[in-house]
Amino acid sequence: MEVRILSRKFDIADAHLLEVAKQHGAYATLDKVFAMPPADVTDEVKNSGLRGRGGAGFPAGLKWSFLPKGVDKPVYLTVNSDESEPATFKDRYILTRDPHLLIEGIIICCYAIGCHDCYIYIRGEYTTQRKALQFAIDEAYAAGYLGEKVAGHDFKLDVTVHRGAGAYVCGEETALLESIEGRKGQPRSKPPFPAVAGLYGCPTIINNVQTIASLPFILANGAAAYKAYGTEKSPGTHLFGISGHVEKPGMYELPLGLPLLEVIEKMAGGVWRGRKLKAVIPGGSSTPVLTPEEAATATLDYESMAAHKTMFGSGGIVVLDETVDVVELTKNLIDFYHHESCGQCTPCREGLGWMLKIVKQLLRGEGTIADIELLRELCDNIEMKTVCVLSAACTMPVRSYLDKFRSEFVAYATDRPKPEQA
């Protein structure tokens, strides 16, 4: 079931070091890439069907093609390594275990889009990952894979690591750009989109770490080899982080399209301690929850998740057993997003705090059925009324908990029907 594309060197001792990485194929694609016209590199990525692995799933090659032609401005690549979605831990594996794979992917992307300056925006708390990445970048400069003549070719490329300050909202691409430019990390209104006016007002491509790290395999083996994995509309592999109430939590690279419950059972050992499955969060904390019945018909691809009215997200699968108190879980979720709101938009700044107040009131035994109805109404009134989707990242899962586990919220209400009245 497991596939080794992104994770091929994860278990090799010292594979983060250039000497070992090169023994196992690092930078082997570059001569082939530089022999191709940049447009052909973009076409190869388009043909592979690679979709952005940051959560949105937008086709990577198509995104590159949005860059305006003939503009007398520099083009920038920004790699989003601000991995802040709760339950998501895929990118940190690449950064510590195979950082040269990411650097090789950066070279490929920059050549394709005509970029000579790349910024890697990394989560501030990722101290170990930043050190490993910076060490690999320094090795790449020393060996001539970065700098004035990349791998001996007439192509200049500089890569800079920019540390964030622990703000979830900076995972949003325009807030990320604001942060790099030295301003408060708040999302920008769009349009213009970053591909037209991004970093320093110049054309900018923003891709996730895993997206960029997928490029060496595609260019080495061709689009067809990549499309041999996964489904027609969701090709390739993905690093799935499975956590929560399972026997074997961890990171698994799998082709897209596998049955969700089969993956939980076969790869992660199933629900722990002999307990029953209560729910599955399929792609990080911002994705609507699936009941066991829904999870039984879901597959790990973008289309199936959309059909189940949730999202593939970042591939962070969280398994919840029968002991979980959904109301407590909802409180923790809202608390996180309320804390991480940048405060720019009133519905998010004030609305999430209002939602948190209501849930805490329920948990104290002071809430009513009307409060539950108000909480549900707030989800509808807050969602998509803001500059970015942080508020929706909270309201979408909260709505799913309210709709699918309503009885647990009602059980906390002071005016719930008595057993003899029910």
UniProtKB/TrEMBL annotation:
Keyword Transmembrane (UniProt): no
InterPro entries: ComplexI_51kDa_subunit (IPR050837), NADH-UbQ_OxRdtase_51kDa_CS (IPR001949), NADH-UbQ_OxRdtase_suF (IPR011537), Nuo51_FMN-bd (IPR011538), Nuo51_FMN-bd_sf (IPR037225), Nuop51_4Fe4S-bd (IPR019575), Nuop51_4Fe4S-bd_sf (IPR037207), SLBB_dom (IPR054765)
Essential cofactor(s): FMN; [4Fe-4S] cluster
Enzyme type, top EC level: translocase
Record GO biological process: cellular respiration
Domain NADH-ubiquinone oxidoreductase 51kDa subunit iron-sulphur binding: 327-372
Record-listed E.C. numbers: 7.1.1.-
Function: NDH-1 shuttles electrons from NADH, via FMN and iron-sulfur (Fe-S) centers, to quinones in the respiratory chain.
Name of the protein described by the UniProt record: NADH-quinone oxidoreductase subunit F
